[in-house]
Amino acid sequence: MGDVEMNASSGVSPMRSVDTSIKVDKNQRYDRGIRIWGAEGQASLEQSTVCLLNASATGAEALKNLVLGGINSFTIVDDREVTEADMGSNYMLYPSSLGKSRAQTVTEAVKELNELVAGSFVEENARTIIQNNPDFFKSFSIVIATQLREQDAVGLDAICRGCDIPVVYAKSYGLVGTVRNSIREHRVIDSKPDSVVQDFRFGRPWPELVKLAEGIDLPAMEPAEHSHVPYGMLLVKASTEYFRRRGSTEVPSSMPERAEYREIVKSWQQTIDGCPIPEENFEEALSNLNKVWAPEAVPSDALRILNDREALEATEGSEPFWIVCAALKRFYDEEQALPVCPTLPDMHSSTNSYLALLNAYRARFDFEVSRVCQFAHAINPSISSELVRNMCLNARVLRVIRPKALYPVHEMELTPRLKEMIASEGDRYSAAIFFFSEVRGCIFRGALEVPRGRNGWEGGRHRGRHEKHVHPPRQHTGDQRGHDWRAGPLWRRRTALHRFDRRRGCLPGGDQASDPPDGAYLRDARVRRDQLSKLRR
Known about the structure:
Layout: E1 4-5, H1 26-29, H2 31-46, E2 49-53, H3 57-69, E3 73-77, H4 84-89, H5 102-111, E4 118-122, H6 126-132, E5 142-146, H7 150-163, E6 167-173, E7 176-182, E8 186-188, H8 207-214, H9 223-226, H10 231-246, H11 255-266, E9 271-272, E10 275-276, H12 280-287, H13 290-293, H14 300-306, H15 309-312, H16 320-335, H17 351-379, H18 385-393, E11 399-401, H19 416-423, H20 430-444, H21 489-504, H22 525-536
Parallel strand pairs: 1-4, 2-3, 2-5, 3-4, 5-6
Antiparallel strand pairs: 6-7, 8-11, 9-10
């Protein structure tokens, strides 16, 4: 493969330079990736075209990982030559690379990692392309911008958000750095959570499932067959019997009703001289009774997506994702449930009984997917049935992420000295820029970390349903110290930083306003700590 250089002014897409005679089993080569993000994620990765701005050590590392994962192609934009500092941090460079084009050298090194990936480079300054040729970025799937100046990052963010292209901003300063993602909207179908609790509708069985359960004659079964009826079928059969006795389809809600339901299940156990014989399938049924009268509710994240304005106002020209969400919303309004899960948990059962129950769930899932397809096709007939099926399968784990856009520095409430340092960002002010990028979210945006309460949990905020409840702050009474968060160390640190900023004209690190930080951020950490401690007192 020869190197391909692009002309940024032409705005053409990266050229493909892969030898088509190479035949590789991609399923075997990318097996580890497929196990992590699935076949759909791997297919999306293989169609990706990546643009890297500045072939720094951070950018080369990120690009290396993507090339090993199997992207389609990449383009590096960099006008610098390899220096000794680059060779000390970027392992893609060799001593023989000194003085050569950094974009070309990194391109050659990265292409050797995967012969199926095409690579190209542009020897031009990233700022020039951002200002003079914004259409250059329209041909890429994602842009990775490393060591980019603040004002250039704002311009790039505006360009890529207009084209709905995700951008990853990364800055590194020695052993520390920052990473930020920016995209107008990121939609995730399979977010792969650690665990998903499904609603198997044991308390609301459909007619075909009821018919399957009623076909089981427990008293006439042999002991071996009796002990291998899956507990899901026992719960469906118990629900049918309970509804018949009550004359309604309301699940048990009170303790007496639940006790009655439990006795129905126990009455089917085999006995010897009046003593029930221990059977694992019945033990499973009794331990999963809560799935009948307390099924898992639809996750709040999924409901928020179904009630999103994009879904409620979906039209033929909307994104397919939102059209299917609108169809799922209509299905949920009619059924008060999401499509049933076509898989079942492990159950103590015989193979034939388990497969019969599993096939019933799969058939119901196919039926409900067809209904969602009808709702989606009523909005846009070209919606893929495979997309509808995939979203129905992952309806409980859908995610939508909308990161905030970058905004210019001059719009922030900063001191003139700090604005000047950011505007003239360079090697001398790298430490100040890093410190600013780290603290601006907590100081200038107000997103300060909430101090810990007396029980160790974050005060005034619930992080999860299993965490402890923190009582509201108490008032100071006499010598008794209250729990007002404004009296905590983080509030004192925030106040001290503001006072320091006003008195010194810059962030901590320099001796005076006319002497800005020299880049030794880590070296002066102890001095800054002592200065802040004095201010807190």
